[in-house]
Amino acid sequence: MMKVLKFGGSSVADATRMSQVLDIVHKALAGDNRVILVSSAIKGCTDALISMEEERYDPNLPYHRDRIHERHKAIVQRLFTGTERAEMLKELDELFNKLFSAPSEQYRNFGELFSTRILARKFACEGVKVKWLDSRELIKVSGRKSLLKDVTYNNIRSAVEACPDIQLFVVPGFVASYKNGPSTNLGRGGSDYSAAIYAAALHADVMEIWTDVPGMMTANPSVVPQAVTIPVLSYEAALELASRGAKVLYAPTVGPVMEEGIEFSIRNTFDPGQPGTIVRGHSQKEGGSWKGVTSTSDPNTEESVIALVGEGRPASARQRIISALSDAGISHIGEIRESAGLCLVSVLHVIERQALAAIHREFFEPGANTVIPVFIAGYGAVGRELVRLIGESSERISRRRGKDIVIMGLANSRKQIIDMKGILPSEAASRLSRSKEDSANFIFTVAKIAPKGSVFVDCTGSTLLNDAYYALFEHGINVVTSNRRSLAVPFVNYTALKQDARRHGVFFRYDTTVGNSLPVLESIASDANCSDSVESIEAVVSCTLNFILTTHESCGGLVPMAKLLQKAQADGLTERDPRTDLGGEDVLRKLLILAREAGVPLEKEDVKISPMLVKSFFTCPIEKFYDKMMKAERDFVLREKKLSAEGLRERFTAILRRDPKAAKGYRAEIKMVSYGPESPFYWISGTENVIVVHSENSSPLVVKGAGEGAREAAIGIIKDILS
Hints:
By secondary structure, this protein is α/β, with parallel strands linked by helices.
């Protein structure tokens, strides 16, 4: 029986690993078997030789040569003793002298000569009838490096048939020569191809490719740790995977053995008891099946192409891929291309790993939950409630959605904790209080260490964090924010944030910035993006003013407006200085967000604000402010009675209305407006928000619900995380 065994560079990297190769080959030689041993250069050698080619004028070149020489000498020192060691060292020195005198463009062709001469001599020392064959003399290629098949096959057969007593032929992989010219090589990974050429020429019974992974796998295990070995593959599927990025097999390898119908296997040198992957021309069951997912990147673009490879005619994968990517917060680029046994999808290069993992989960990890790493900035009322709700709802979300939200980072204004194993919600507060880590660089630390596809949640009121969102996007990290200040920035900055998120293939969600968990922004953006232009938006969205106005109305003025405002401040419904709310600044931020989602590039200076109170209320110290409020209570009550007699109620309203005469086609203002019972604004109570949107072609959209509350905000944030 003729066997061809090929060993990669990691399999012969040092003396210990070469000893493992010796054991595997001795077992293959049992009985009357004959073996062709094809070997790569020791790990890293070819890269070093190529570097030497490129640095041929470097004065340190002799030093680099000596380092390669010393690595091989160290292997010889370990494998051989006595005169055998001396003879091998002498042979090695002669080979290196040839390297030193060779043209620099030939350097890369020497690595396999060094490794195979060591192996051949070691087998000879152990009593094996062995012969070293020079692949440069046997494997011939054309000027374009196309294999000269007939010449090569005849050369190999003649060389082996001329030595009927030889049990083991040791041959260098990778190298070849032009028909009537100098030596060359078969390209990176060419040792696999060398093995296939020898196997096909000799009609080998067995071909084994020994490497450092347990066969061809459902994905690259360094990218997707959950990848598993594919037990059996067809030639076509193996070729497709290899051609589209699976580096465990050099694609041209498949051709020669497929032509001859030679079954081959890919096995792990470091776990030789495992069968690995068998590649053969087997029949595929009706319907087919998906086998693996791999990817390639175009260095000239920012895109990567992910290939889902199958056998036969498996069911369409298009919708499953779309759903898997969507669940991971990933947008694909262009159309998904699908044919029998192959589905191709393009994504941005920066999220290639994330997309691979998402597709692998969908097709090769049945029942596996998607883990969503979450990092939370801000541990005030909303942040605390968010952490609590994640703990309370985790089991339900896992069961219903197949997703596990894992808090891996948490920060307040002073401290931070980061634990990639996860932070239990029940322990979050105590762990944060005990932490000695300053939170100043929390967002940039997250950008560096968070896995791609993580979610950063901004529960702060900071005006600075949004500038750091770009660092998160660049590292493939999604952002969910309830921080209105992060969006009430100049329009150019607002659009830059959204564009940067799209460019890096991550999501940027902020639905809780207006109306908390109400579906306001999504509805407005949906209409605007469907060419149903917005005619007007009226929004009563100041929870502070809604609370004090509606409560004052309902109690008939028995509780003064000043006392209601103080209660709202104590309950956390207002800014630190409540006059910020009364002056319309918070409503202004919300109106900017609403308008921009409607496609109107509104700026702060485009909005006319008429506060509820006159200017003198805003220029005095806060203590005098409350005194002035108490003194003005009689005016408030009289105003309410007058409106009530007319069947009206007053609300602090943000208005955006189409106006062709306005600079941006819309006029915007924030002011007190009176409404009758026919208006939904009339019936507001407590902290409720109401937004009414009139569109060009649709019926008015009325959204009403709780506009404030830590629980509502936390619920909305969780929706954004899971969407």
